[in-house]
């Protein structure tokens, strides 16, 4: 072996990705009581992944004026994260030039990868807008509107189209209209991150309401879609970047540039998962079966929310737990603090330090132990 020092001697060891480390700790735990509430993937009541029996218009709707006017199009991406990366790269090259450094806003809190992806694309001005009211366990709608109104003109706002990660809390239709109107006044460019379409309500059309409202109001925007969750294709990495532009010529130019970005970044995405999605959505019988599968998954999540809420109340656990059933989608922001989460870790229950849990990790066989442990955490740890 050469004694010459490596050119990369000064490279520091990166901190482990929290969610990956949490999963590794869970797998290494020999306890038969262990519960994994961390990873964002669907699980059956037996705690197992579910391979669905059935595995452009989905997010916008087949009658969307943007589609009918040929000013909306998509580029296949490597799942939702890949779509977000393409969006960030495209915006840095062709939108960021209007300012020295365009401000990029994410919700507080948000999925941690959003800021990292935009940083890697070159953006340097990263900010947050208010979203979660910790005292009320509710949406800070007033604060969110104030932050939009005070944002620099032409800022980029990353919005969660549905099933907000990590809070599980979505604006109402009326609130979405208010958000869109505020964005319009400030000339905000919206990027809608739609990783969980279908998991909020069980109906992908219902979950696309916010995106379609922005299109209806005349916004140019980008939509980042993942089919990993709603098709159960976690390892196939299938996603889509949807571009909605002012007119057809603009769409053609912009999509051509995104395709060049793809060419230099990874050349071509895998097609196996894409063919499954395309075949399913283009076949009426298969599409209906997929919609039924979505309803099955969403229904189980809702049932676990109500069961957890009921059992916590029945046990007399201090606090108001109504937010568990008013939140939607796969995740719940429980309101547990970091010390209480650490207490639960000692009980072999794995969740993020923010208190976010994946409702799919709860089953009828582990919920009693979970409720007992949460009760003990809340009553004994402040």
From TrEMBL:
Alphabetical GO biological process terms: aspartate biosynthetic process
GO molecular function annotations of the record: L-aspartate:2-oxoglutarate aminotransferase activity; pyridoxal phosphate binding
Keywords assigned by UniProt, alphabetized: Aminotransferase, Pyridoxal phosphate, Transferase
Top-level taxon of the source organism: Eukaryota
Keyword Transferase: yes
One GO CC term on file: cytosol
Assembly with partners or alone: Homodimer.
Protein name stated in the entry: Aspartate aminotransferase
């Amino acid at each position: 072996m050469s004694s010459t020092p490596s050119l990369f001697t000064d490279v520091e060891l990166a901190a482990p990705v929290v969610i990956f480390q949490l999963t590794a700790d869970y797998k290494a735990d020999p306890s038969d009581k262990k519960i994994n509430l961390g990873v964002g993937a669907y699980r059956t009541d037996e705690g197992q992944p579910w391979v669905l029996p059935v595995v452009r218009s989905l997010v916008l709707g087949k009658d969307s004026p943007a589609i009918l006017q040929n000013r909306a199009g998509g580029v296949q991406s490597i799942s939702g994260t890949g779509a977000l990366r393409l969006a960030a790269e495209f915006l840095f090259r062709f939108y960021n030039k209007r300012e020295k450094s365009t401000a990029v806003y994410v919700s507080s809190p948000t999925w941690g990868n959003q800021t990292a992806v935009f940083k890697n694309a070159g953006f340097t001005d990263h900010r947050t807008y208010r979203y979660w009211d910790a005292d009320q366990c509710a949406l800070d709608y007033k604060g969110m509107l104030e932050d939009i109104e005070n944002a620099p003109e032409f800022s980029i706002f990353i919005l969660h189209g549905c099933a907000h990660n990590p809070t599980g809390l979505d604006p109402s239709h009326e609130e979405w209209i208010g958000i869109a109107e505020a964005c319009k006044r400030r000339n905000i460019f919206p990027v809608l991150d739609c990783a969980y379409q279908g998991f909020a309500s069980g109906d992908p059309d219902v979950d696309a309401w916010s995106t379609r409202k922005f299109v209806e109001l005349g916004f140019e925007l980008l939509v980042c879609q993942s089919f990993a969750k709603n098709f159960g294709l976690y390892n196939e990495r299938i996603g889509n970047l949807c571009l909605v532009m002012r007119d057809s010529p603009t769409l053609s130019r912009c999509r051509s540039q995104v395709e060049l970005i793809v060419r230099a970044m990874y050349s071509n995405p895998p097609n196996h998962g894409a063919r499954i999605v395309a075949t399913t959505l283009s076949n009426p019988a298969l599409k209906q079966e997929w919609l039924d599968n979505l309803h099955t998954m969403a229904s189980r999540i809702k049932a676990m929310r109500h069961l957890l809420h009921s059992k916590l109340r029945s046990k007399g656990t201090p606090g108001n737990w109504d937010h568990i059933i008013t939140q939607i989608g796969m995740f719940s922001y429980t309101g547990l603090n970091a010390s209480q989460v650490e207490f639960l870790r000692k009980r072999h229950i794995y969740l993020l330090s923010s208190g976010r849990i994946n409702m799919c990790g709860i089953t009828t066989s582990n919920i009693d132990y979970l409720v007992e442990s949460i009760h003990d955490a809340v009553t004994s740890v402040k």
